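Hi P.,

Sorry for the delay on this. The queue was packed all week, but I finally got your sequence through. Input first:
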Amino acid sequence: MTNPPLRFSVFSVNDHHPRLPRTVPQLYEQVMAQCELAERLGYDTFFCAEHHFHEYGVVPDPAVFLSALTQRTKRIRLGTAISILTFHDPRRIAETYSMLDMMSGGRFVFGVGSGYLAHEFIGYGSEPKEKRDRFNENLDIVKRLMAGETLSYKGQYSQSEKAVLNVLPHNGRVPPIYVAVLAREAAYHVGKQKNRIFTVPYASCKNFEDIGALLAEYRKGRAEAGCPEDDDDHVFVLHTYVARTDEEAKAQCKAAYDLYVATRLYAKRHEYEDILANGICLFGSVETVANKVAALHEMGIRHVGTIHNFGAQPPELVERSMTLFANEVMPAVAARIGATAVESRSSSRPACSITSRT
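Then the structure:
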């Protein structure tokens, strides 16, 4: 029996380091070129982070960035990872990303979250203790508006009379929505709410094996909610650098990764040697990385996101790693597990939580 196909995507945090020569416009151009390369190489989705008020990430509005990419790409899906619903008017989010989905021909993937960076809550004057309630209310409004509903509501944080979108998503289909989580407990609750999941395990897992435990908690919640198994209900993202040997990988990306970690204001400080030891990365030779991806498949993971661009890594090395991963790691994993290396498509099966407009 052939196993379900694996999907592989690219995620860009867009971390900026103002003490280095690379400018923000140069970073934007490099990342956009890498998205175009990802499309040529057969990656499934390009994900873009949203961050505010610090060089931690310099794309405050992913819709603007992804809109430019709708004009530079034709097939690859374009996603937010994540849109911070807590900080924004849900009506504005719904209409902006519906327009983006229309512009992309239905290629938009909607990663959403409640935020976790203290300086962003301070900058927006938002109370962290309210974030979960704000997020849940805003996500409900966004889903209903994108599905074509006319809303008159009075919520805890916003209210409206007869709000209805004048631009709906492509073909009236609500884009696939993934909710970002860190901890196992959150994964369980997101599953229980019948939502998809998006996670970067290095920020919360103790070791490589703990990744499987996080997925298991999510699956437990989904099962209790009565959702059928779905290989398209999750994205697990790991920092990635592929070279010819493990030693070459270390020589080429250790400094960049350690610089990247130095700007992660609130995450656990796992430098290169730490993350090699705990295993929550895809660093090394083609064989080393293929072995780890196959292990992720054994855990039940079917969609792996890869972060190749971090710490002002030179673009030629980022592109080399992306190319080795696509041309050599993907086929090696496919041969091992008996599956198609990557399933490329511009739309997604609806999860049991998404109601499409008819």
